[in-house]
User: Which sequence fits this backbone?
């Protein structure tokens, strides 16, 4: 009666004419809504006086069933046509409706709660709507399980009160004595929780049914369909954040799944690995490729689709947004998008070669391209309709740690075609333009030259310094000082100007190496003379490892106390990894100064005293 109360209040507020005008606008906007509005108007008289019961039941059941198919079935299955369920009453045995095609007879109950009627109408309609041409190729238990899994979806959407009705009148009567159907039903429900039951499983089944019908194949496909279901359950049961590239190739199904699920890969490699996976699926013969992405990746997914739409081998058929249920009851449900790509059988890999020939592009050519997607390690570029990729190391003559520091999505740049990969249908690009080559600069230094560079980064064991004309100079960390420095201190040179001397220049490897310490005389011969064996010093612990203890000595020197020396130090140092801590003071003596290795080996003072 809530609907009746709402309608009455609306009429009192806006008048009958206003009410009819709103109804007319709603029907124009969506003609299918006429049945729903009819049910709302008839509901008060039905509930109060049982007037217009047949018309009310027909409208309520017909509209609700139609909306379910429209929103939760046919919308997600592009190979299915739209369906409209309309209820007509049989008035006599000679009623013309009984002889019309596409008509199904069922019994409806005149009750206030239409839940059972709606479920009954849907249950009868399902075999005629979902995979109708495949059913002759399926055992009855499989058909039953599929229909019940869909009916369960409807019951969930009708509300909690519908669930016991579904179980009592529909589920239990059909699976209580049919354990095979019950097992399959449970698997389909599990698949539905991940949003792939309708949008992938039923889509592929419907396509298979049309294929079998066209070829007049009446063979039993139940086992093959069960195998395909197990393949889809692999994706449904995957661990959180685990990335998978799956394909299922059989006589009846040629399906690939690309799952977008790793944040780290999206940030570092962008869409390039996903394009590779799609390309592999095409080459292996997948007719359908599904890309599945969670809500955090929708923007990233859009980039993939934008690039794929330019691939003539594929057609983007459908983008479905589905809500999934978490296996953890404490978590809220999430949303996924499932994109269906269909392989275009008219085009093949030869299309890329033809377009390449038509463009006249060759290795070494200078071309203009638009960046379609850019990540840390790689960017995807459109070159006259051809896919191109460029990796971070090729983005600049200087060391580029991130493509995004050089390239921007949507911008146009000049590129050199480094190579053409016909096996992957793409161009490999470079932004190392010959006229910008720093090794052609008049400022390029020679060995022995003293120059000043800007230290801009650390890469591995080297500082990277920039000189004139983007000339890059590597400064190995060990070339900073003649003395061993504490590791955290190494970053102090970043973003400073440093004088250095070029000590290595390789034209072949295009490498310049500079040294800061070689501007001064090597102090280690003097250190060797100043610290003869047996010299006693006070040291401070810098680092404790399983093999040694590294300590700081006076005058900025460091030394190593080997594991064996620590173990000889007595009970106090028997478990030195736990008993010795940073900043702890130790009395040590010089064991040996290595001039070439520039290292100082130490012993504990107590060990030397004991030997004396």
Assistant:
């Amino acid at each position: 009666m809530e609907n009746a109360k709402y309608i009455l209040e609306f009429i009192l507020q806006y008048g009958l004419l206003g009410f009819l005008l709103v109804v007319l606008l709603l029907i124009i906007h969506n003609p299918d809504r006429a049945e729903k509005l009819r049910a709302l108007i008839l509901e008060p008289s039905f509930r109060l006086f049982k007037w217009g019961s047949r018309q009310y039941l027909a409208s309520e059941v017909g509209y609700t069933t139609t909306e379910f198919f429209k929103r939760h079935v046919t919308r997600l299955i592009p190979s299915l046509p739209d369906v409209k369920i309309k209820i007509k009453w049989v008035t006599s045995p000679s009623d013309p409706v009984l002889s019309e095609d596409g008509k199904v007879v069922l019994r409806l109950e005149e009750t206030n709660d239409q839940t059972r009627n709606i479920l009954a109408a849907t249950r009868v309609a399902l075999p005629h709507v979902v995979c109708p041409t495949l059913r002759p190729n399926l055992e009855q238990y499989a058909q039953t399980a599929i229909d019940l899994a869909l009916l369960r979806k409807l019951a969930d959407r009708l509300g909690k009160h519908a669930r016991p009705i579904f179980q009592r009148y529909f589920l239990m009567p059909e699976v209580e004595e049919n354990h095979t159907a019950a097992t399959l039903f449970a698997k389909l429900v599990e698949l539905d929780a991940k949003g792939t039951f309708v949008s992938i499983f039923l889509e592929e089944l419907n396509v298979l049914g049309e294929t079998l019908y066209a070829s007049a194949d009446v063979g039993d496909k139940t086992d093959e369909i069960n195998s395909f279901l197990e393949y889809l359950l692999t994706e449904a049961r995957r661990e959180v954040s685990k990335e998978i590239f799956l394909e299922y190739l059989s006589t009846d199904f040629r399906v690939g799944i690309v799952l977008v699920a790793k944040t780290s890969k999206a940030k570092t490699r962008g869409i390039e690995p996903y394009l590779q996976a799609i390309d592999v699926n095409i080459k292996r013969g997948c007719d359908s490729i599904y890309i599945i992405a969670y809500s955090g990746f929708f923007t990233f997914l859009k980039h993939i689709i934008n690039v794929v739409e330019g691939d003539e081998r594929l057609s983007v058929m459908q983008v479905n947004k589905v809500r999934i249920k978490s296996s953890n009851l404490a978590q809220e449900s999430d949303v996924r998008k499932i994109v269906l790509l269909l392989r275009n059988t008219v085009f093949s890999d030869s299309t890329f070669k033809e377009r390449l020939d038509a463009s006249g592009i060759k290795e070494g050519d200078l071309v203009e391209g638009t960046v379609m997607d850019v990540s840390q390690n790689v960017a995807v570029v459109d070159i006259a309709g051809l896919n191109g990729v460029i990796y971070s190391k090729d983005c600049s003559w200087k060391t580029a740690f991130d493509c995004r520091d050089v390239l921007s999505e949507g911008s146009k740049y000049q590129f050199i075609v480094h190579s053409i990969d016909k096996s992957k249908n793409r161009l490999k690009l470079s932004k190392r333009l010959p006229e910008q080559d720093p090794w052609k600069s008049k400022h390029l230094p020679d060995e022995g030259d003293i120059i000043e560079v800007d230290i801009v980064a650390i890469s591995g064991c080297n500082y990277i310094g920039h000189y004139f004309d983007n000339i890059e100079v590597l400064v190995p960390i060990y070339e900073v000082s003649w003395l061993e420095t504490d590791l955290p201190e190494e970053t102090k040179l970043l973003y400073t100007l440093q004088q250095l001397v070029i000590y290595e220049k390789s034209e072949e490897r295009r490498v310049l190496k500079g040294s800061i310490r070689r501007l001064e005389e090597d102090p280690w011969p003097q250190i060797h003379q100043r610290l003869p064996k047996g010299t006693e010093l006070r040291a401070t612990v810098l680092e404790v490892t399983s093999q040694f203890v590294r300590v700081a000595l006076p005058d900025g020197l460091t030394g190593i106390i080997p594991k064996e020396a620590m173990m000889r130090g007595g009970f106090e140092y028997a478990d030195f990894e736990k008993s010795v801590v940073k900043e702890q003071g130790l009395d040590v003596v010089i064991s040996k100064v290595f001039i070439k290795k520039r290292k100082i080996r130490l012993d504990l003072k107590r060990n030397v005293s004991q030997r004396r």
